[in-house]
Write a structure and sequence with these properties.
Elements lengths: L14 H4 L23 E4 L12 H14 L3 E4 L11 H18 L2 E6 L4 H14 L3 E4 L9 H9 L9 E5 L10 H10 L3 E6 L4 H8 L6 E4 L1 H7 L6 E3 L7 H9 L2 H20 L7 H10 L18 H10 L8
Parallel strand pairs: 1-2, 1-8, 2-3, 3-4, 4-5, 5-6, 6-7, 7-8
Helix pairs in contact: 2-3, 3-4, 10-12
Length: 331
Amino acid sequence: MRTQRVGYSTACVPRSIQDTPRTALPRTSPTMSSPSESAPAILATAVIPWNEHYEFQEDVFRRQIHTLGRELTRHLYIFGTAGEGYAVTETQFDQITRAFWSSAREAGVTPMVGLISLSLPTIIERIERCRALGFRLFQLSLPSWGALNDEEVDRFFAETCGRFPDCQFHHYNLMRTKRLLTSVEYRRLAAAHPNLIAVKNSTTDPAVIADLMSLQPRLRFYITEMGYAIARKTHDLGLLISLASIHPARAKAFVAGSDAQRAADLEDFKAIIAGLKAAGTRFHIDGAYDKMLYRMTDPTFPLRLLPPYASATEADFACFKAAVPPGWRRG
């Protein structure tokens, strides 16, 4: 399989990358099945627990992986926006990915690692280290210091998808990166990189959904609850679960049910969103909300975010929990 490769000037590349010959990686990828074949119905994040000293609580994290894999979905990822992938040190990144790899194997989970950094060489090095552990599935987010132009977007995917043809990649298409990709860019990137297999998005805009769905089945799409309910009326896609994660059985019913059932659930989701907003305005980072959502499953799960980002408090969580519709509260 022919893949696009773009080289760096060695003047701006860390020595660790300069000294790693690309020929050390396979020149051809394994056979890539269509994303729609055995594609997961639900894709979920695992969030990172920190103790009062902001140290990683590995035992709590491992328990979460087993719980999510047993009750919700066997397709989990770490280090998206909810998983504080933008905030960890390289030491923390390595510690957590090692724990994720081993706990995922124990739980029979398919693990994916998110990659968020302003530095493309850092992203490349993280892939290399994860690949050495055994990971072959990754989630990309565009570097966000400034919005990438078309040439820069192409180079970014060439240096990730193109550099690692034996791995598979999802792209997280979110506004925090200052550029949202459309079917125009995805059509070009999908043609260049057969191992770009899926896209995550949180849109509720029917026009955007229709544009993205035009790329199925070549790319698999995962959209959060509100947009998912719209897209499922006409297309097969995956749920990028967020709000519904507070009740795994109800979440699975949301996916398996009819359009009418999903429409009814949307009213409950609006109440859950209202509860999250009512919980407080002192925090605004995704992980603060997602940790409250997971706290509905594990009442002992810590709510802390790494500084400087503000976290939800116990009072904030109590306010949110009280606003959750009764049918979405676990026993």
